[in-house]
Each structure stands twice: as C-alpha cells, then as structure tokens.
C-alpha cells in the first residue's frame, strides 16, 4: 500500500484549515448582520480580509441554510418587528428596483393622476416618471416630492402628517385622511413583505393606514415589489395581493402567489432584464 506523500498531507491539512476558517467567518458574518441589520459585501470583505467573491459564496451558502437573507449587494436578517435601516435599503437590489420602475413608467400615460407612497422602490418609480408630461402626484414621501420637484413641472401635493426623519415618510392620521380626499387614476404602492397566502405586510401601522387609503381611492393599484419581499414576514397586515390591479416585480413569484394572481385577475408584470 502506497503512503500519502508530504504534499498531499499538507493539502489535506490546508483543506481542513480552510473549512474551519470558513465556519468561523460564517459565524462572524451572521453576528455582524444580527448586530447591524444589513451588511454590504464590500464591507464584509474588508472586515474579514477576503475577496468579494469569497463573501458572495459565503452569503449564498448562508442564504441556502436560512441563516441570512441574500440581497443584491449584501445580506440582512428577516424580522417581523423592525424594518431594515433606510440607508441599507437604498443599496439593496438597486438594479432590480430600477427595472421594475421603468416597467411601471411605461404603464402611466400623460395627464394622469396618481398616489405614490413610502418606499425605496416607489422612489425609483418617481425617478422613472421624470420624462412624463403633466402628471398630478399626491405623495406621503418627501423623497418622492423632492425628486419630482427637481426634475419635472408636475403638480405635486404633499400630504400632511408627521415626518419620519429616518426615511422621509409622512405618517399619521392627517396623512391618511388627506389621501382620502382624492380619487386618482393610479395608486403606486410598495410593501415590506408578502406572505404565502398573498397577505400584504408592513412594519408600521401608520404607514399601513396610508397605503390602505391609497387602495380605497385609486382606480388602478400597482404594487411594486422586488423578489426579496416574498421572503419577509412583517407583522402589520395591510391587505391582500388580490386587491391590487397589477404586481410589478423582477422575478416570477412563488407558485402559490402566481395561482392567486390568476384566480383574481391580477396582472403579473415581470420587468425584463436589460
């Protein structure tokens, strides 16, 4: 029987060491994500002094194991009680959000009236609408109002209410009451999570009340949600996906959601990859 050569023994030891190092790094990644809510790939690579390719492989494995949620540009943890920080959400899935936004913009004609609510995907829709003509926009999102004020001559109506410093959302009874004073052509709403039975879920009850007012007062409702929203389970119920006119997303939703959309004649619009 031949003996294992020195180089082979070293390779085996090196392999075991690499596995131990990866295990320790995985534990460290999960700990950092728990602490901060979201970690970008580049920040993790710098922290652990490895390549971004190594971190991507780590995150893919951790995502498959259900220990983190994999997003474009980084990783976060699912939570039913607290949303990911706004600055982190801004860098999550930006390409997918822009694709969704461009598709929504093609469905909005000139001279239309619309609501746009709080969220980074709805903010992408606002940017995509910049080339339109003569829109009337009611919004409870300071970022949407600022974007459109800088780049268009649309008539913009900002709801009353309390401004949330962390993300520019305007919430409270005054906000939802003011939305109820209008009846518009299109309501464009984002959401934090979509349950397996089609329940639309969010983190903030005040924000939910405003979104419900948009549902009631729009002739057509466009729900904009990237694929990660199907893996999140916030605790506040906003409504059902069966109440919207169309779902705009970047990947095919889970089969149960697709069946639900078909049964209730909700259009499914999947943004094409460029």
UniProtKB/TrEMBL annotation:
Q: Which UniProt keywords apply?
A: DNA-binding, Repressor, Transcription, Transcription regulation
Region Disordered, residue ranges: 1-22
| One Pfam entry name | HTH_DeoR
Q: Which PROSITE patterns match?
A: HTH_DEOR_1, HTH_DEOR_2
Say if the entry is tagged with keyword DNA-binding.
Answer: yes
Residue ranges occupied by any HTH deoR-type domain in the UniProt entry: 22-77
> Which GO molecular-function terms appear in the entry?
DNA binding; DNA-binding transcription factor activity
Name of the protein this chain belongs to: DeoR/GlpR family transcriptional regulator
From which organism does this entry originate?
A: Aliidongia dinghuensis
């Amino acid at each position: 029987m031949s003996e294992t050569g020195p180089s082979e023994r070293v390779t085996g030891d090196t392999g075991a060491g690499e596995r131990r190092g990866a295990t320790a790094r995985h534990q460290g990644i999960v700990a950092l994500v728990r602490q901060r809510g979201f970690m970008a790939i580049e920040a993790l690579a710098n922290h652990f002094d490895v390549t971004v390719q190594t971190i991507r492989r780590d995150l893919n494995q951790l995502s498959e194991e259900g220990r983190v949620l994999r997003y474009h540009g980084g990783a976060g943890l699912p939570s039913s009680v607290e949303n990911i920080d706004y600055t982190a959400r801004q860098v999550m899935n930006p390409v997918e959000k822009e694709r969704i936004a461009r598709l929504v913009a093609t469905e909005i004609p000139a001279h239309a009236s619309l609501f746009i609510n709080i969220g980074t995907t709805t903010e992408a829709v606002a940017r995509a609408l910049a080339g339109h003509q003569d829109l009337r926009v009611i919004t409870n999102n300071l970022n949407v109002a600022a974007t459109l004020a800088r780049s268009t001559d649309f008539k913009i109506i900002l709801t009353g209410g309390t401004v949330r410093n962390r993300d520019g959302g305007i919430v409270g009874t005054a906000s939802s009451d003011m939305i109820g004073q209008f009846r518009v052509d299109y309501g464009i709403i984002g959401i934090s999570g979509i349950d397996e039975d089609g329940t639309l879920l969010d983190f903030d009850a005040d924000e939910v009340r405003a979104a419900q007012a948009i549902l009631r007062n729009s002739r057509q409702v466009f729900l904009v949600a990237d694929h990660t929203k199907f893996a999140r389970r916030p605790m506040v119920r906003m409504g059902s996906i069966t109440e919207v006119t169309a779902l705009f997303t970047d990947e095919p939703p889970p089969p149960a959601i697709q069946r639900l959309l078909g049964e209730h004649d909700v259009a499914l619009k999947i943004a094409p990859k460029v």
